[in-house]
Amino acid sequence: VTPCKRRRDVDDILTKLDRGTKTVLVRVDFNVPKGPDGSISDDSRIRGALPTIRRIISAEGCNAVLVSHMGRPKLVQCGGEGADEEREKL
């Protein structure tokens, strides 16, 4: 039986960085549900990312760049006419 490895976290990354100003790229899941008026109806994914973001920006000399997306492309999401051709191109 192989022992389970401990999951890496943001502190593991920050301790391996050289001293000085660093920018950390963070892929965050901000694909949150929105109401009919476009307002966010559940912000739990955003709140879930806050400890990681706060930890990075509190580290000396570190900045965070957040990368996310919102929703799916309409053509793929709806499966509308031409969707199969677009998926095949990808």
Task: Provide an overview of this structure.
With about 90 residues, the chain is α+β, with helices and mostly antiparallel strands. About 40% of the residues lie in helices and about 15% in strands. The protein has four helices and two strands; from the N terminus they run αβαβαα. It has a two-stranded parallel sheet with strand order 1-2. Strand 1, helix 2 (about 45-60) and strand 2 (about 60-65) form a beta-alpha-beta unit. The longest helix is centred in the middle third of the chain and has 15 residues, at about 45-60. The protein is extended. The model has no long low-confidence stretch (mean pLDDT about 80).
Kindly report the spatial arrangement of strands forming the biggest sheet.
1-2
What's the multimeric state?
single chain
Can you tell me the overall shape?
extended
Q: Gap between N and C termini, in Å?
A: 40 Å
The H-and-E topology, N to C, reads as HEHEHH
Please describe the biggest sheet, giving its number of strands, its sense, and whether it closes into a barrel.
2 strands, parallel
Low-confidence stretches: none
Q: State the helical fraction.
A: 25-40%
Secondary structure tally, helices: 4
What is the strand content? 5-15%
